[in-house]
Each structure stands twice: as C-alpha cells, then as structure tokens.
Design goal:
Blueprint (H helix, E strand, L loop, with lengths): L5 E4 L13 H9 L4 E8 L5 E3 L24 E2 H8 L4 E6 L5 H12 L6 E5 L2 H10 L4 E6 L3 H10 L3 E4 L6 H9 L3 E2 L7 H9 L4 E4 L2 H20 L6
Parallel strand pairs: 1-2, 1-10, 2-5, 5-6, 6-7, 7-8, 8-9
Antiparallel strand pairs: 2-3, 3-4
C-alpha cells in the first residue's frame, strides 16, 4: 500500500439520529473527513431527483421510480444534497435506475448549477454511463458490475474511468487486470476491516464506508505498521 486510498462516505454517513442519503449524512461525512460523498439517486415518476436506496421502500411491489414523490416515504431531493456537498468534496451519484437522455440532461443541469468540486457517476445501467460520456465528458464514470473479467472489457468500451465490483468474491486477479486496463479500482462498500485492508493492499483508489473517520484511522494505523515493519525487515540498511 503505497498511499492511503481516498475515503468515500457511503450514502453520506451512518450515525445515530442521522438518516442515510440526506444532507445531514453528507455533512457528517464531510466532518469525518470523507474525500468523496456518495448518494443513491432515483428519478420519481413525476420527475423529481431524490436520494433513495432501493429496496429501502420495503413494502413496495414496484421500484421506487414508478411512484410520484408524494407517494414515497420521506426522502430528500438531490438539490439539497448537492448544495450541502458544495465544493468541499467530490460528489458521487450512484444512479439506481435506467435514465433516458432527457432525464440524464435534467439531472446534469440540476447538479451543474451548483458547480460541485467534482462529479462521479456510477451505475449498473450502461445507458446512464453512455449518456454521461456523451453529455458530461468532464465527469468521472464508475462502472458498477459483478467481479468478472468481461466487465473490465465492458468498462473500457463504455469509457469508464473507475470500476466498482460488488464486494463479494473480488479476486486479486480481477483487480490486477482492471489496473492493467487503465481503470481505477473502487470496490463497493464494506464494513469488514480485513476486506478493506485487503482491497487497499491490492491498490484500491478509494474505499467506501458508512463510517469515514473509523476507516481512515484503520488505514493510517495499518499503513504506519507496514512502514515500521519494512524499516525493521532483515537486510534493510
């Protein structure tokens, strides 16, 4: 681990009395030292962009974007979250649904009006990434995928900059191949310390967590231990 990975506040942050995917969660993540804040984004049936992770609407038979804003449980609109993030941190929009070009342009206009420091767009839906590459080439594309080698080829075809495999079953060979392909390895969120340290050792560019301050402290402690061990290793002058 040559340097510490960047810290992504997953859905902002998780803390008592703080609702995930909210301005308070984003503000808390910034206070805890996150470099990037991530929120889940959907577009309601009546055209409102809100921060919501599906299937958080547990009683719903339909995905949340099939509902109007008034039909959903209390959620925060993306405008408030972008305003809170401001230019303090990079903003990572994890888009949870297919968006057509018109919808993506509406989202891009909304976000750009606040001139955020940097914008990352992640999604499993390839059409979203294609729209982003077409209309907002200055934004970073993060391809959400399963950790299979063909996903690396697809990421390059889409013009992705980062690759975000789901946390289970990621192998070192996948990471090495992704790095060789010029992608930055940004694995999905995990609260397993051993897994996070393994990802860091494999060259993760950024790590996602509900508890940014805790993960940064863990990484720093491990990094310092690695330096001490290297300095005392046999044969080192």
């Amino acid at each position: 681990m040559k340097s510490l990975p960047k810290i992504i506040g997953h859905r902002g942050c998780r803390a008592p009395g703080v609702l995930e995917n909210s301005s308070r969660a984003v503000a808390r993540a910034i206070t805890e030292g996150a470099d990037i804040v991530e929120v889940d984004v959907i577009c309601t049936r009546d055209g409102h962009f809100v921060a919501l992770h599906w299937p958080d609407v547990c009683s719903s038979l339909l995905p949340p974007w099939k509902y109007r804003l008034a039909e959903l449980p209390p959620v925060e609109q993306v405008t408030s979250i972008v305003r809170t993030a401001g230019q303090q941190v990079a903003l990572y929009l994890d888009i949870k649904q297919p968006l057509d070009d018109r919808q993506f342009l509406d989202l891009a206009q909304l976000v750009s009006s606040f001139t955020p420091r940097q914008v990352i767009v992640g999604s499993f839906h390839r059409g979203v990434l294609r729209s982003c590459a077409k209309h907002c080439p200055q934004w970073i594309l993060n391809y959400d995928c399963l950790p299979v080698h063909r996903a690396i080829t697809k990421a390059n075809e889409l013009g992705a900059h980062w690759i975000n495999p789901v946390a289970f079953a990621v192998r070192k060979s996948f990471v090495e191949r992704a790095l060789e392909a010029g992608l930055r390895f940004v694995p999905a969120g995990s609260e397993n310390d051993r897994r996070q340290l393994r990802y860091a050792a494999w060259g993760a560019y950024a790590l996602s967590t509900f508890r940014p301050a805790r993960l940064r402290a863990l990484l720093r402690q491990h990094f310092e231990q690695c330096i001490q061990q290297a300095s005392h290793s046999p044969g080192r002058r």
